[in-house]
Amino acid sequence: MIREQIFRRENLELKIVEEDAAVRLYWQGVSAEKDPTEFLDPIIADFFERARVGSRELQMDFTRLEFMNSLTLKPIIQLLYSIKKDRDNLGLRIKIRYAKSVLWQTVNFRSLKALRTADNRIEFEAV
């Protein structure tokens, strides 16, 4: 069964889609707030928890995101560090999809690739 939940704030829309094998978080619009963590942190925590409880893969899709400022990266990086460190040995995996034709996405996600893991728990896919 597929379940969806949509969150909106200003020009940003996040949609969590739960499926049997994965939990996806789609980003759409613009994230340009001076402090986006108030909005993003609870959503990303919920996204993580849904995957953890069901032992499902996490997927974040940024291909429809028009712009995000550098402050938006903080909660994303925190999530990636949680998965990389995997202190609780949860075995969670995440795949980040971004648009290779969008320069700012390529630049931002290229720098985040430093967080990839040898066992592919953190993957990036340019589409």
Entry summary:
The protein is of the alpha/beta class and 127 residues long. The chain has three helices and six strands; from the N terminus they run E-E-E-H-E-H-E-H-E.
Overall radius of gyration: 14 Å
What is the CA-CA span between the terminal residues? 27 Å
| Low-pLDDT windows of residues | none
H and E string: EEEHEHEHE
Number of strands: 6
Overall description:
This protein has 127 residues and is an alpha/beta fold. It has three helices and six strands. A six-stranded mixed beta sheet has the order 1-2-3-4-5-6, with helices on one face. Helix 1 packs parallel to helix 2 (70-85). The longest helix is centred in the middle third of the chain and has 18 residues, at 37-54.
Topology:
Layout: E1 3-9, E2 12-18, E3 22-31, H1 37-54, E4 57-68, H2 70-85, E5 94-98, H3 103-112, E6 122-126
Parallel strand pairs: 3-4, 4-5, 5-6
Antiparallel strand pairs: 1-2, 2-3
Question: Which terms summarize this structure?
Answer:
127 residues, 6-stranded mixed β-sheet, alpha/beta, single chain, 3 helices
